[in-house]
Amino acid sequence: MPVLAIAAGYAAWRGLRARAVAVALAMVAVPVLVMPLKLWIDRPGPLTVESGYYPSGHTATAMVAYCGAALLLSPLTGRGPGRGTGYPWAMPVAVVLSAATGIGLVLRGYHWPLDVLGSVLLCGMLLALLVAALRWIDKRGAAGKGADAP
């Protein structure tokens, strides 16, 4: 979460406020999606009789926070015409950190592998929607700039 907060603040400071709001809304969607599934499925954890372990909320939060931050900074990464040149490593780092979080949760016995996989699939769909929203925001912003140009 701190990584996403810093990225959102930086993006807003650089004038990417609509993108920052979209990513923040995606982060808000994580517990809205994960908590009902945890209650409905009521799966016990690997080393406990306690339930509510599927899907992994930790994996979901890490994936959306890290990948959301990378997507938020993507206009500043030098990808595509007219882009900046500072952060081409952001998405690969986000993917590695997200994977490390999920793997660590499994290795420490906190989640079953399918708990993590379920979160990856769920948040993969959420991130796909986020990408579509960011593209729409970028197109809307480009159209607005084109209309204002002399």
Largest sheet: none
Shape call: elongated
The number of distinct structural domains comes to 1
Question: What percentage of residues falls in helices of 4 or more residues?
Answer: over 70%
Rg value: 17 Å
The computed structural class is mainly alpha
Q: How many beta-strand elements?
A: 0
Describe this structure in words.
- The chain is mainly α.
- 72% of the residues lie in helices and 0% in strands.
- It has helices at 2-13, 17-41, 57-73, 90-107, 113-148.
- Helix 1 runs antiparallel to helix 2 (17-41), helix 1 (2-13) runs parallel beside helix 3 (57-73) and helix 3 (57-73) runs parallel beside helix 5 (113-148).
- It is elongated and about 55 Å long.
- The termini are far apart.
- The model is unreliable at 146-150 (pLDDT under 50).
Key phrases:
150 residues; mainly alpha; 5 helices
Short structural summary:
With 150 residues, this protein is mainly alpha-helical.
What's the layout of helices and strands?
Elements (H helix, E strand, L loop, with lengths): L1 H12 L3 H25 L15 H17 L16 H18 L5 H36 L2
